[in-house]
């Protein structure tokens, strides 16, 4: 259980985060935050019905308030909370500084997310391609990697008119697998529905407030890809994260900051990593096609960081970045490339792609400690899901 001091701290932190969000929303010409999700804000989801934004007249005032909160958290009794909340405050100060006077792109990555500010290297990307080739060969695909993936994608492709039904079935199966290993504190009827969209800057999005997974049908979609999305956006991914946090706050075991989904912050990387590790949690990485799909997802996160770095740190033109993505994407077609370009072209989202690249490996390091020890999993799930974490604070879980 978290201390009363930490629960009280969350009551102070949540309004400050909402206040920073309100400052940014005003700058963007947006109004007050409603109950629904808004991907163009700093706080993209607000599950609270009682917390109000702290009135902050300027980004300078925001930096001052988060400096105060950073000093306050140093006295909290839980070591992981002291570290995590200090990082959240540093993220908020970096965000306010960026909006007030600008930050170089590498400093945005490091300051917002607390991860290394460099793109995936050629060696890392080559290593992922080398890991996929023998699995594809075992599946019967020959030729170079591009030829292997063309045939693999053709065999496993789901047509746009079928994706909603297929994803619904996968979500149902993922729910069943999840409840076997992890408590979902709700009925199945509360779960996610699928809405297909196009022209958006994402492949899929969990709109928890409306219980919708918004699925972009412009990319070429495969069965392993949809299975990954069912887990990542649904169970035991983002839906379960939000539900447990919402219920945890109502039960008095989670602090108020869990009610907010904030981007460009210390928790962004673990938020994505917990969702990706869900594939292993429910046993959907043993099939060869799923192993290819998991490696492919990581590879595409890597080339996403490289593309964002080219655009914002090296000054490449969007056309040149797009050409490189098309050359190296392997699957997904131009629809995937277009969605990725929309994402990395947004000044307030470009750094966030690093959370996908670092998420799965940072969470896997901790999950691997309990993966084969069922008696320790309940404690791990409570620690990982019921409070917010950075990659660094997650490692405080007893190993």
Determine the structural class based on helices, strands and strand pairing. Answer: mainly alpha
Please provide the count of β strands. 7
The helix-strand sequence is: HEHHHHHEHEEEEHHEHHHHHHH
- Proportion in β-strands: 5-15%
Low-confidence segments, ≥5 residues, pLDDT <50?
A: none
Can you give the mean pLDDT?
Answer: 96
Task: Please state the CA-atom Rg, rounded to the nearest Å.
Answer: 20 Å
Assembly state (oligomeric) = single chain
Please give the share of residues in helix. 55-70%
Concise summary:
With 399 residues, this protein is mainly α. It is 60% helix and 6% strand.
Describe the structure.
The chain has helices spanning 4-27, 59-73, 79-101, 105-113, 122-138, 145-156, 163-181, 223-234, 238-250, 268-281, 288-312, 318-328, 333-345, 353-370, 374-385, 391-394; strands at residues 43-46, 157-158, 193-197, 204-207, 212-216, 221-222, 260-262. With 399 residues, the protein is mainly α. The protein folds into two domains: 4-108, no CATH class; 122-390, no CATH class. Helix 10 packs across helix 14. It starts with a helix and ends in a 5-residue tail after the last helix. The model has no long low-confidence stretch (mean pLDDT 96).
What key phrases describe this protein's structure?
399 residues; mainly alpha; 2 domains; three-stranded mixed sheet; 16 helices; 60% helix
